[in-house]
Design goal:
Layout: H1 4-90, H2 92-102, E1 106-117, E2 125-126, E3 129-130, E4 132-143, E5 147-150, H3 152-155, H4 165-169, E6 172-182, E7 190-197, E8 204-208, E9 231-236, H5 241-246, H6 250-253, H7 262-271, E10 278-288, E11 291-294, E12 306-309, E13 313-321, E14 329-333, H8 334-347, E15 351-352
Antiparallel strand pairs: 1-4, 1-6, 2-3, 4-5, 5-8, 6-7, 7-8, 7-15, 9-10, 9-12, 10-11, 11-14, 12-13, 13-14
């Protein structure tokens, strides 16, 4: 029979292994819990890093998209600005501004001439009456002192009028008897004097006594130039009084409609504010030997008008057209007229229409 001590040792030995198993299991579970916690933290850290990286990549992508959009807008705005600048220098806006600014300085020239025999000075008669020929043309103010530029053939119209070539051949020469300039918004005309004519080019200078009347002065600066392909605007009075009368009703001209005689009709139109140049636009086709070729429409009566190029500067004086091809007009480069004007201003020598030249 076992003693009480032996029984206690048996219980102790029996309980020893169980306690160790439990302790081992508890330790293992604790270790697993720690590992799981660490893994969870690592996973969270990795997740946070991944989210941060993804967020960073998303931010970079958004920033890149915004930068691309900004550059696209900037490029579009720059292109639009360049197009506007190009239009301002070549397209309609500068044309409109030039017409609005300079039309008031472009005058209708109305004149008359007779034929005098070279030997005796007697006038040429037809049916026992002295023949006086009326004509119209265009000029424009190039100096505030009242100097007007036009063509030489404008102040010598008998030399280009084929109707009277036989009279010239018979020993007669033309002589101006009247020359007046009519401007838009001016109720009456101004007497004009021939101040100078070029011997090399078809240009002439007139002098007006404008008094206190101010009219626009067209820019004929030294920078004036034109290249083939550029736009030109021509201001003038094609067909003269005919086009002005055609543009208004008889009611505006008063009882009886248009009065007879170029002088009276011009005064009537001026008094009613109906003097205004016609503007046509075209393209410069060629520049050679001091002549500008362009396709802006023109007609008889527009000789002497300004040909305006980009920048609003006068580049030529309208002088002729090719009858057989309506798309070809000719102008004398403004340089020749600028030189003549400088000479005239320096000499201050001018003649009144109808008085023999002294130069």
């Amino acid at each position: 029979m076992k003693t009480q001590r032996e029984k206690g040792d048996v219980r102790a030995r029996s309980a020893g292994p169980s306690w160790l198993v439990v302790a081992t299991l508890v330790a293992a579970l604790s270790a697993l819990a720690v590992v799981s916690l660490r893994q969870t933290r690592q996973l969270r850290t990795l997740s946070t890093v991944s989210e941060t990286r993804l967020a960073g990549q998303s931010w970079r992508s958004d920033a890149l998209s915004r930068e691309v959009a900004r550059l696209t807008r900037q490029t579009a705005e720059s292109t639009s600005a360049d197009e506007k600048t190009n239009i301002a220098s070549q397209g309609e806006p500068w044309c409109e501004r030039a017409v609005a600014a300079y039309a008031g300085g472009v005058c209708l020239l109305q004149g008359a001439y007779i034929f005098l025999e070279r030997q005796t000075g007697k006038p040429w008669l037809a049916d026992d009456e002295m023949v006086q020929v009326d004509f119209t043309a265009t000029g424009f103010v190039a100096d505030a002192a009242g100097y007007v530029l036009t063509n030489q053939h404008v102040v010598r119209p008998w030399e280009v009028n084929q109707t009277y070539r036989d009279v010239l051949a018979a020993g007669y020469e033309g002589q101006l008897t009247e020359l007046r300039a009519y401007f838009p918004d001016q109720p009456a005309g101004f007497d004009a004097w021939v101040a100078g004519e070029s011997k090399e080019a078809d240009v002439a200078v007139l002098r007006l006594e404008l008094g206190r009347v101010q009219v626009p002065v067209l820019d004929c600066g030294a920078e004036s130039a034109i290249r083939p392909g550029q736009t030109v605007v021509v201001l003038g009075y094609p067909t003269g009084l005919q086009s002005l009368v055609a543009a208004v009703s008889d009611d505006r001209l008063g009882p009886g409609g248009a009065p007879g005689g170029c002088g009276r009709l011009a005064e009537t139109l001026a008094g009613k504010g109906l003097i205004a140049p016609t503007a046509t636009r075209g393209m410069c086709g060629r520049v050679t030997d001091g002549v500008v070729v362009y396709d802006a429409a023109t007609a008889l009566g527009a000789s002497g008008g300004p040909v305006i190029g980009p920048g609003g500067r006068v580049v030529a004086i309208n002088t002729a057209l090719l009858r057989t091809f309506g798309g070809t007009s000719f102008g004398v480069e403004i340089g020749a007229a600028r030189e003549l004007l400088a000479q005239v201003k320096a000499s201050q020598a001018y003649e009144r229409a109808g008085v023999a030249a002294t130069y």
